[in-house]
């Protein structure tokens, strides 16, 4: 996939929106990849005697995301809010599989 046009090089809202749409497709693709790892975690956790929710790991992920966001120039509060939703979704996904075993 060709690289995105930088925001300051977009000459119209149509062009800008097209770039946002391309970026959204890339983000969805990355979330699909992440979900694959969550599915694998749901297989591995029972083998290792681990529950779906591990509070220490949740907070570790949030700390990492906040630091990464800050370093990248993104509001860490926004990153935390987004990731907490993603983490809760992931844990629910794992719990459905783990609970079924």
UniProtKB/TrEMBL annotation:
GO terms for molecular function: carbon-oxygen lyase activity; chorismate mutase activity. Residues 7-98 form the Chorismate mutase domain. The keyword Isomerase applies. It comes from Cribrihabitans marinus. GO terms for biological process: chorismate metabolic process; salicylic acid biosynthetic process. Keywords: Isomerase. It comes from the Bacteria. Pfam families: CM_2. Its EC number is 5.4.99.5. SMART domains: CM_2. InterPro entries: Chorismate_II_sf, Chorismate_mutase-related, CM_dom_sf, CM_II_prokaryot, Isochorismate_pyruvate-lyase. The keyword Isomerase applies. This is chorismate mutase. Gene3D superfamilies: Chorismate mutase (1.20.59.10). Substrate binds at residues 17, 34, 45, 94.
């Amino acid at each position: 996939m060709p690289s995105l046009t930088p925001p300051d090089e977009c000459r119209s809202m149509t062009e800008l929106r097209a770039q946002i749409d391309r970026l959204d497709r890339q983000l969805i693709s990355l979330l699909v990849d992440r979900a694959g790892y969550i599915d694998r975690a749901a297989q591995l956790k029972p083998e290792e005697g681990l529950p779906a929710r591990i509070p220490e790991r949740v907070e570790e992920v949030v700390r990492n995301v906040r630091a990464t966001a800050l370093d990248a120039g993104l509001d860490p509060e926004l990153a935390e809010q987004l990731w907490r939703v993603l983490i809760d979704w992931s844990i629910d996904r794992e719990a459905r599989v783990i609970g079924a075993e």
